[in-house]
Amino acid sequence: MRARLRPALILVAAGVLATAACTAGGGGSTEPAAAPDSSKPVTVTVWSNFADRELGVLKSTLDAYHGKHVNVTIDNQGSQDDDKITQAIRGGNPPDVAISFTTDNIGQFCSQGSWQDLQPYIDRDKVNLDDIPQAVRDYTQFNGKRCSLPMLADVYGLYYNKDLFAAAGISSPPKSTDEMLEDAKKLTVKNPDGSIKVAGFLPQWAFYAYKPQIVAPSFGAQWLDKDGKSGLGKDQGWQDLFGWQKKLVDFYGQDNLQKFTAGLGQEYSADMGFQAGKVAMAIDGEFRTAFIADQVPTLNYGTAPAPTSRPELYGGGYTTGTIIGIPKGAKNPGAAWDLIKYLATDTDALVTLANGLHNVPSTKSSLSSPNLKLGDQFKPFLDIFANKNLASNPASTIGDQYLKFVSDFGTSWENGQVTDLPGGLAKLDKQIDDAKALGGK
Fold first, then answer.
1. Which CATH number, 3.40.190.10, 3.90.1150.10, 2.40.160.40, 1.10.287.110, labels domain 42-154+319-386?
2. What Pfam families does the record point to (predicted)?
């Protein structure tokens, strides 16, 4: 199953992406291409990075579409990442439909025309984009150009071990970051030599799902200033976030943390820290529920929205997800659009995919479907997705490079290499803006 935030792909350089005009039909016209006549056979090629069982789940949904459009044969090809899709576009032989597991390259796809503008199709068919949460609409477009739609989403919240909570005398999950800090201390168990036996919460950047973009919504941290430049140094939320995180790092001691995490299992293995009972609380995506059910079904755990620094932020969280679009040069753009519209907006299709892949369906209508069969521990993620405080990080022409800058800064901060937080954030802003300026050229 896809069921996880995939590791960031290698940054696609600006010069690699095709730069021809982004048009609805792949040529010089901005008129949306018509779907093929039902009497005429057509083959639509779909590329995604799904594999094995996941690819089978997608196939079942594509088969349902074929059942309604018997003239459309779908060539469903898996194990195709963004690099392969981009190379096919450059070579003039792209698929008709491209599915990407990451939003990192959406700024390049849209701005350079590698993925076609879908707005003419949306306008013609009167697709209701209001059925998609604002945060999701934001990460599927760039600077007003919509070259993709969402096809399922990942949503992040708090996982907590109920047995460890009971042993520490804690009756419910924390709602505030202050409560989380105190609970993490209470839940931590140390060995006689002072080393960590059980960690209440792991605050190391880039370990498991603890990444700046995933935690930022908990502090209301904003990425951009009013002029569209990097605004981390001007935003109190980032100072609050890094200050909170450093308190927890100092509580454990960085050396202690390094030794402890070195002995934990990999993120998607059965002995991953939270699943092994060695970490009491974790920030993770909805897909973790499927891993637990498969790998450690006896784990007694609960899920909730991530704690926040301000009460008015509680209930929301971070989201990202799979995106789907028509590559430049697609041979059957009209048929491709009709299939994309089905995968992105049809409630039954989204529910089938959500149930099979254990991801959040990406429209408001599908959230309330009685056919969703994802379990009680999954429900908080549906609620987070529907919350007004749902947030994501902005798309950029430099892909995920700016996220790496922030993560690297966070590591330097927690290691004590950065001591002036406001000054360090100001330098970070300059680094990001300079990279964008070079990327733009």
1. 3.40.190.10
2. SBP_bac_1
